[in-house]
Give the backbone structure.
Amino acid sequence: MEQDAQILDGLKGTYAERTRYEKILYQQYYYFTDEGCRKYNLSFDDSFSAYSDTILSAIHNIINERFDGRSSLKTYLYQIFSNKCIDLIRKNTTNKQQVHKTMPVADAMNQLPDNTKTIMEKLVTNELKANVKRQLDAIGQKCKELLLMFEDGLSDKEIAEFLSYSNAAVVKTTRLRCLDKLRERILG
Amino acid sequence: MEDTIAYIESYFQQTLSSEERAVFETRCEADENFAKEVAFYIATRQVIREALLEQKAQAWKEEVAEEEDTPVIPMGKRRSFGKWIMYAAAACVLLVVSMFLFETQSSPQRLASDYINKKYSNLSQEMSADSDNITKGMDAYNHGDYDKALTYFIVAKQKDTANSYLKAYTGLSYFQKKEYNQALKEFDTLSNMQGLQSNPGDFLKAVTLLERNDQGDKDEAKKLLKKVQDENEDGSKTAGEILELKKL
């Protein structure tokens, strides 16, 4: 078992180190998936999705210094995992015909206050998401790669270094242009 | 419209002040067009996140499966710092003496590292999938920037988990960084891959064990080298030469 401090340091290290510690973290608490099946009565696929999403959310919070370290990593992960399992149960209960989703509730949505969130939940439809998914392939591999890296928690500076852009500002402009290109295709 | 996207992004990146956040939230409720822009942004982030998650979950899942199937190579016990100083001093003395007396003679380690330097100092294998990252990784590797090379190879590996070359290149980058435990993991996975035309996994594992030189590593390396020689795997000629030295 790796110690919390070691994992936290590794996740905040270079990209190679981070990738290595992501795997370690993932393996260390993989048994949560059994808990998801047993305690929350989820299918293995649902429990696995909730667990993978938990790890990704936790990694992002750790990198962005949003994990204050007041609880152990295990407790912190388990809290996120439980919430994601409950979200998944709610979704499955309210709409049994819903197509299986990898992620129960997106982090961006959770940042909104309740009133705004309700409005957004109505606007972010499955149809809109399907459209974005289709158009994402059409805006080019470079754009997609850039957006994926940003979503993976890499800063514009790190992306600039990695993809050989001259500086972080260029990456930011390019990234926003990519989003705008996508927006044009969807909202017109 | 880039400005609107930048504004929306700054909200979700939490770079707005609390007053600015309140204005943003009110606008979402009062301005339908703006709300649609925000919904587009959220939907896009969700789709990208799902794609990322799918990519990562697949890679993690495969890693778990590989680790479960793979026998663990015994690691050497940690020695105390004092012992290390003693070993280092002894090694220095031995090094001077051996350089003086046996300058031209080879050691298994030297043969092994010569092989790596000769064969893998420059990577040139062409790849089919995600060639951009692999080419950049090889370029960084060939310029001795192994950290950067690793970053490219790791990203490429997430997209192409079954690529044997990528496992070899990732392992070689770790090897060059002297991170032998990580290199061994990669080579171990490589050696367990089935159906390849040629597989240098066992030989690379043996070479890495010789370089790491922890307790039991030489014996493990010897077994692997014999296997490479007997089964005529990649590196069998050098394996034979190392075994002939009888220094293992």
About this structure: The CA atoms of residues 84 and 196 of chain B lie 41 Å apart. The two ends of chain B are 68 Å apart (CA to CA). Confidence is low (pLDDT under 50) at residues 72-79, 101-105 of chain B. Chain B has two domains: 2-69, 106-244.
